[in-house]
DNA sequence: TCTGGGGTCCTAGGACCC
DNA sequence: TCTGGGGTCCTAGGACCC
């Protein structure tokens, strides 16, 4: 029964490795999913070892608007989990230590993680700041059978980064991902080829990536709560009920990378499709001057990243969230793509005044750029001298910001109120823990 | 429970064109 | 001046992920 051969502390090598004795099956597709344990918390512990072993919540202070980015295992015992409002976390676990997030620290550690991973396989894909897929197919000669390779990786990770990770091994990304979750914390788990369905069957449908709250309750309504129930259902019925998604779901219940991103080859890098920034006020605001200056700042951040990535965006989107949490987005597509703060702001300002219920207190503002044109598309467009001068001025400003920090330079329109915002509200922007496609 | 920030993908409807 | 169908682009919203 070589199913749970994996967990680090009670793993015995060999007993499940018999399949590789003759060298044949090394051609079987072998995917590793490496997931760092309580990543943000562990990184904070490196900087402040006194946090070790305590209930720690990363994401902001106990009274702040915001949610938990990461919780230590100690805090999780009290029901604290990521995405939980900070204030709720404080109620569940009053003795927890609340820590602000430090995106730069996480990025830096993530780069070290990436280095360790690339020393094991050339095909590494960072799926987010703290997890990655490795294609380990055909590496048996170099690294030995999967479990041995995984343990070596786990050890080197600890050596080089001082961080714990968990490794899931399977014949598909899906299986690897689900198995790393089961291996946590600090474990290794290999799902032997052929055992996929058996492994998945007893798990909650919620364990399948892509099944969230809504899909879960839809499935519950049909009397389906375990992956095994799902696998027994007719594929056609799933398709009727849930469309294209249902088809994929049927495949996933069998452990296949059915459709969508999961189907891509590991390491096939994907270009960014949108860039956005948003800000939630600690207290709702209906002050037009303050709102406008926030928008200006957001436009500057978006513009800056467009220039950094050499993107030109055609579609600009504004996001408004009112006090009661109702949220609208309003977009406009330009005739010609841009990467200029001023042009972005012009659109955003128009959209804002056209759609803001004047005087209504606002909780969140956001600016997004999408529909990217390539540099080549851009070259073919005639470039006026005016645009060129703006471009020069902005890249000079970008360089200054690099040197002296984000707050040194602001376009005139963004000045008023922005000082106040930066000191009092300090957007403690929690790190992009989202899909940072393409490795560091 | 009083709900962040940064992303991706999907759906659905309307405009417009052939 | 009644009317089919397909393709593409755009917009808005929502589910989901970390």
Can I get a quick summary?
The chain has 440 residues and is an alpha+beta fold. The chain has helices spanning 39-47, 73-76, 86-92, 103-118, 140-143, 146-161, 173-183, 196-200, 213-221, 227-232, 235-253, 288-308, 341-355, 375-379, 385-404, 418-425; strands at residues 31-36, 56-58, 70-71, 97-99, 124-128, 131-135, 165-170, 188-190, 274-285, 312-322, 327-338, 362-373.
Q: Keywords, please?
A:
DNA-binding; Dna Ligase, domain 1; globular; four-stranded antiparallel beta sheet; 440 residues; MutS, DNA mismatch repair protein, domain I; disordered N terminus; 12 strands; alpha+beta; DNA polymerase, domain 1; 16 helices; five-stranded mixed beta sheet
Structural features, described:
This protein has 440 residues and is of the alpha+beta class. Among the domains are: 40-102, 3-Layer(aba) Sandwich (MutS, DNA mismatch repair protein, domain I), CATH 3.40.1170.60; 201-263, DNA polymerase, domain 1; 274-414, 2-Layer Sandwich (Dna Ligase, domain 1), CATH 3.30.1490. 40% of the residues lie in helices and 18% in strands. It is built from 16 helices and 12 strands. The protein has helices at 39-47, 73-76, 86-92, 103-118, 140-143, 146-161, 173-183, 196-200, 213-221, 227-232, 235-253, 288-308, 341-355, 375-379, 385-404, 418-425; strands spanning 31-36, 56-58, 70-71, 97-99, 124-128, 131-135, 165-170, 188-190, 274-285, 312-322, 327-338, 362-373. Strand 7 (165-170), helix 7 and strand 8 form a beta-alpha-beta unit. Helix 4 (103-118) packs across helix 6 and helix 12 (288-308) runs antiparallel to helix 13 (341-355).
């Amino acid at each position: 029964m070589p199913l749970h051969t994996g967990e680090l502390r009670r793993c015995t090598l060999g007993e499940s490795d018999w399949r590789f004795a003759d060298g044949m099956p090394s051609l079987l597709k072998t995917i590793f999913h490496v997931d760092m344990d309580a990543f943000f918390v562990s990184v904070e512990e490196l900087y402040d070892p006194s946090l070790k072993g305590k209930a720690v919540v990363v994401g902001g202070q106990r009274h702040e608007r915001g949610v938990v980015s990461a919780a230590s295992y100690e805090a999780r015992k009290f029901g604290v989990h990521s995405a939980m409002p900070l204030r709720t976390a404080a109620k569940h676990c009053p003795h927890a230590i609340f820590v602000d997030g430090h995106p730069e620290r996480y990025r830096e550690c993530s780069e070290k993680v990436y280095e360790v991973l690339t020393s094991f396989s050339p095909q590494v894909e960072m799926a987010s700041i703290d997890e990655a897929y490795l294609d380990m197919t055909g590496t048996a000669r170099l690294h030995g059978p999967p479990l041995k390779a995984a343990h070596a990786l786990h050890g080197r990770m600890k050596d080089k980064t001082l961080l714990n990770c968990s490794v899931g091994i399977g014949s598909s990304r899906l299986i690897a991902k689900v198995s790393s979750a089961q291996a946590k914390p600090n474990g290794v788990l290999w799902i032997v080829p052929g055992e996929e369905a058996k492994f998945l069957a007893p798990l909650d449908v919620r364990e399948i990536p892509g099944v969230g709250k809504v899909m879960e309750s839809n499935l519950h309504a049909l009397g389906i709560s375990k992956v095994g129930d799902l696998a027994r259902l007719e594929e056609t019925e799933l398709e009727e009920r849930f469309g294209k998604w249902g088809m994929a779901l049927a495949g996933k219940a069998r452990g296949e990378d059915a459709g969508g991103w999961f189907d891509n080859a590991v390491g096939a890098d994907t270009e960014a499709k949108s860039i956005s920034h948003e800000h939630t006020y600690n207290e709702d605001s209906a002050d037009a001057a303050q709102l406008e200056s926030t928008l200006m700042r957001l436009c500057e951040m978006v513009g800056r990243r467009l220039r950094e990535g050499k993107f030109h965006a055609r579609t600009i989107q504004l996001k408004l969230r009112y006090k009661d949490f109702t949220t609208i987005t309003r977009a406009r597509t330009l005739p010609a793509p841009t990467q200029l703060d001023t042009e972005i702001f012009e659109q955003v300002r128009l959209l804002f005044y056209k759609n803001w219920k004047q005087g209504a207190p606002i909780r969140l503002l956001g600016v997004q750029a999408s529909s990217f044109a390539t540099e080549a598309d851009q070259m073919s467009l005639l470039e006026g001298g005016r645009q060129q001068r703006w471009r020069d001025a902005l890249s000079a400003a970008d360089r200054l910001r690099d040197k002296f920090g984000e707050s040194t330079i602001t376009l005139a329109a963004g000045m008023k109120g922005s000082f106040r915002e930066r000191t009092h509200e300090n957007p403690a922007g929690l790190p992009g823990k989202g899909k940072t496609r393409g490795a560091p």
